[in-house]
Amino acid sequence: MSQLGAWGTALAFESSSNRLLTPCEIGVEGSARYAQHDVVGLPPFYEFIGPGLSTCQLTVRLSAREGVSPRAQLDLLRAARDEGVAAVLVIGGRPVFDAGHLAVLEKIGEAWAYFTGQGGLLVAVGELTFHEVVPREHYTVAANAIGSGAATKRNVVSK
């Protein structure tokens, strides 16, 4: 068995002779944060505030023929989304987001593809959107650094 990655206990990406659950069409998007300052008689200017939070979209194919119960896996994912589970998202042995940052499952898009003659779900495709979250203790460390004067002077306006 080869575990390719995971998100907490709700999702394990793996490839083995008994089970195949791999992510595909992975996309990560990030941004920076800027503040706009309006100036009378002049165009506004932007000031860099800091990094923004990233998102990761990926697709998973859930197939009973590949050892994954589509309905059971979707139930696990829905429960984790609805409970606000935050865990490290790992793909290919590396965290998707910055070290120490967690991921929450923000959105699930489901396509139910094939059924048995009795109505059992055979194959489903899930489009998952994860959102980066920063653990609360990171903010405590940053606030202490600012209070001690260890903050950067990149954004400080001097007279």
Protein described:
The chain is α+β, with helices and mostly antiparallel strands. The chain has one domain (2-30, 52-147). Helices cover 16% and strands 51% of the residues. It is built from 2 helices and 12 strands; from the N terminus they run βββββββαβββββα. The chain has helices spanning 70-83, 136-147; strands at residues 2-7, 11-15, 20-21, 23-29, 32-39, 42-51, 55-63, 86-87, 89-91, 94-95, 102-115, 121-133. The strands form 3 sheets. A 5-stranded antiparallel beta sheet has the order 3-2-1-9-10. A hairpin with a 2-residue loop joins strand 5 and strand 6 (42-51). The chain starts with a strand and ends in a 12-residue tail after the last helix. The model is unreliable at 153-159 (pLDDT under 50).
In which range does the helix fraction lie?
A: 10-25%
Largest sheet: 5 strands, antiparallel
- For the record, the count of structural domains works out to 1
Shape: elongated
Order of the strands making up the biggest sheet? 3-2-1-9-10
DSSP summary, beta strand count? 12
Could you tell me how far the N terminus lies from the C terminus, measured between alpha carbons in angstroms?
Answer: 63 Å
Q: What pattern of helices and strands is seen along the backbone?
A: EEEEEEEHEEEEEH
Structural class, judged by helices and strands?
alpha+beta
- Give the overall average pLDDT: 88
**Number of helix segments?**
2
Rg for CA atoms? 21 Å
Residue ranges: pLDDT <50 for 5 or more in a row? 153-159
* Oligomeric organization of the protein chains: single chain
Strand content: over 45%
